[in-house]
Design goal:
Layout (H helix, E strand, L loop, with lengths): L10 E12 L6 H16 L8 E4 L7 H9 L5 E3 L7 H14 L6 E7 L1 H4 L22 H15 L3 H15 L13 H6 L2 E3 L2 E2 L8 E10 L11 E10 L15 H12 L8 E4 L4 H10 L8 H6 L16 H4 L7 H13 L12 E8 L4 E8 L5
Parallel strand pairs: 2-3, 2-4, 9-10
Antiparallel strand pairs: 1-7, 1-8, 4-7, 5-6, 8-11, 10-11
Length: 385
């Protein structure tokens, strides 16, 4: 066993909280974050003064850990404000497990808050322009994902119908989730007829723009069973980076999930066939197809057909994005923390009508930038240790 594999099962999630998912007018990102933290503390019975590890990122604050610590009134002895886009908070699960195992903190808080919808409501990148792309006036991030989708269609015969079926499956799950922002029925035909944003992606191929905050609290495994809810254990995780500019992506049809996935599986001692539920960062419909392929759930080029056969929808063999995902549940600028929350809820068995019966393992996969950063984490119940 190497040092990375020794991290398996050493830390667990014991608190979960969400706030403002959808619209929360009149609230700042920090206020929404704080409400989600309160919900997570109430969930596990801890106090703000118990938190001594802080992990956060922001689209608004240049010094996110400093801003959040000040607002919450805490002085953590360990903090991590590393920022790799929407996958940041999945990476923070790995980082928190490492910090807890090293004794650098005892109670780790991962938190995020955003008022993107009520503050502006646009699905457009706020980051620096890419010098070799800006002259062509792309609408990032949508244009970059449209490029990947078009190339996948060219190489593998993936169709707009396949892409549409990703959105329809997400909506079917969202209709089972009372917290989802978009719950009205959605058909393949409606996705195909929707306003085109960046060919081949229509507005229904794109994630929501919402407000929302989320918080996750972790402790070392030996303490995890002392709290009210069933603990969810960290089993494995890995991060992979591939490019900053989409023009520098080696292959538009293969994401760095093809590297992060195998590393996370190795740490967890699991493979795709061992996973009961998936939480994949579906900023756009092409994401789900790419990640299903790159994480080993179907062969490369078969993702579109796999989706259209009904595997990922309610009643299918592989439950994916059971909360409705970024396409239909919530997407406040960055979505990664909501992946972790939904996966943990499924393993707790607390998801009501959308609960995956007998779920003991979950794969969480985060995406950041324009397919730039990929982070995979495996979570499990007590039975997986």
């Amino acid at each position: 066993m190497n040092k990375a594999e020794a991290l398996r099962g050493k830390a667990a999630i014991i608190g979960l909280g969400q706030a403002g998912t959808g619209e929360m007018p009149g609230h700042s990102p920090l206020e929404i974050l704080a409400l989600s933290v309160k919900a997570a503390l109430d969930d596990c019975g801890l106090k703000l003064s118990d938190i001594d590890g802080l992990f956060t990122g922001s689209s608004y604050h240049f010094l996110p850990t400093v801003s959040v610590a000040e607002y919450l009134g805490i002085k953590p002895r360990f903090s991590d404000g590393s920022m790799i886009g929407g996958s940041t908070f999945v990476a923070h699960v790995l980082h928190a497990a490492m910090a807890l195992d090293a004794g650098l903190c005892d109670v780790a808080l991962i938190a995020y808050g955003s008022n993107q919808r009520t503050a502006g409501g646009r699905l457009i990148s706020m980051s620096e322009p890419h010098p070799f792309e800006q002259q062509y006036e792309p609408r990032h991030p949508i244009t970059a994902y449209a490029l990947a989708a078009a190339r996948h269609m060219h190489e593998y015969g993936t169709s707009r119908e396949n892409l549409a079926d990703v959105a329809v499956a997400a909506r079917q799950w969202a209709r089972l989730n009372p917290e989802a922002f978009a719950r009205e029925p959605l058909t393949r035909e409606e996705v195909l007829a929707a306003r085109m944003i960046s060919d081949p992606l229509s507005v229904r191929d794109c994630c929501l723009v919402t407000d929302g905050g989320g918080a996750v609290i972790m402790v070392r495994a030996e303490r995890a069973r002392d709290f009210p809810n069933a603990p969810v254990y960290f089993l494995g995780g890995a991060t992979a980076l591939s490019h900053r500019s989409i023009a520098q992506m080696d292959d538009l049809t293969v994401s760095a999930a093809a590297r992060s996935g195998p590393q996370a599986y190795a740490m967890a001692g699991l493979g795709p066939k061992d996973v009961d539920v998936l939480a994949l960062y579906d900023a756009f419909t092409i994401n789900t197809i790419l990640f299903l392929e790159d994480l080993g759930f179907c062969p490369k080029g078969e993702g579109g057909r796999f989706v259209s056969e009904g595997h990922i929808a309610p009643g299918g063999a592989l439950p994916v994005n059971t909360n409705g995902g970024g396409l239909s549940c919530v997407h406040p600028g960055m979505y990664g923390i909501f992946l972790v929350i939904e996966a943990a809820r499924q393993l707790r068995g607390s998801c009501g009508d959308r609960q995956v019966e007998g779920a003991e393992t979950a794969l969480v996969h985060g995406n950041g930038g324009t397919l730039s950063s990929q982070v995979t984490a495996l979570l499990g119940t007590q039975a997986t240790l």
